[in-house]
Amino acid sequence: MTKKGIRVIIPVNIQQKLALAGRIYDKNTADGANSPLNSLADHHWETTGPKVKTCLDLHNKGEEYRRLMEEAYRDRDALLVEIDGIIKSSRDLLLGVYSNTPKRLGEWGFNVDDSPRSNPEPPQA
Question: How far is it, in rounded angstroms, from Cα 93 to Cα 88?
Answer without folding.
Answer: 9
